[in-house]
Specification:
The chain is of the alpha+beta class. 33% of the residues lie in helices and 11% in strands. The strands form two sheets. It has a three-stranded antiparallel sheet with strand order 1-3-2. Strands 4-5 form a two-stranded antiparallel ribbon.
Length: 255
Amino acid sequence: GQVFDVLTINQNCEYQNLVDRLIKNEVLPLVDQEIEGIQKVVSVDFDLSTKQFYIVYEHAHNIDSAFKPTLKGLKHILTGLEKLKRQNRFGHAIWYETLMTSNGEAKLRFVGLFELFKHQNLLSTEFLAPEVLNGTRPNFQSDIYSVFKCFEGLLEESSDESLKEIFRKALSEKRTSRIGPPFSKCACLFIGKKLSETKFLGCNSCKSSHTAHPCDIITFKINRFYFLRKSIIFGNFSRIIQLVILVVDIKVVVM
């Protein structure tokens, strides 16, 4: 069988309209989309027996126990946000617990659920842009701020003035001072250049030095799913978020 990450959301009249809208407009359109830096949504449905929505994500393998910022990971996230922006999708819940890192790569999960996280008081204010903290609806520039805030640790290991300038602009207090989509493209180009200057030594598979290796990338597509319903029954929404974030190996059996 295959293993998936599953988020379940209880039906609740208090926020049901919000959930219905987010599922329909923000999550369902992402099903089966392959977007670099974004955890793939495999399926979305409602279980009548448990009265729960469930969102099934591609399983994340070998996740670091703690978030580890890398230039490669930053480039992945910026590329993904750029592609989502082209679909008019922005304003995401971005902080250490919604970013997954593994082998230097990074992915953002729970895309499209910012408003639900906010409603449930699950957002980490440390990584929210100043304007969002003041009540303004987040946009692409707000996402840029949150991402660079998460990856700020890179500056501790770098003396590159160009990189520092990119971070300075991305973390500007004023949203209008943060350059929009062209900025993220330039940042990706700069980071890509820095990465091309770096050799990755001692690949575990071929024991040689190189900048990239096909064994580092695994993609697959699943066409049909049969879920054991008892595998996706959990408690209230807040507890579910903690389970998914802290124990990201929730298993769903595919027959």
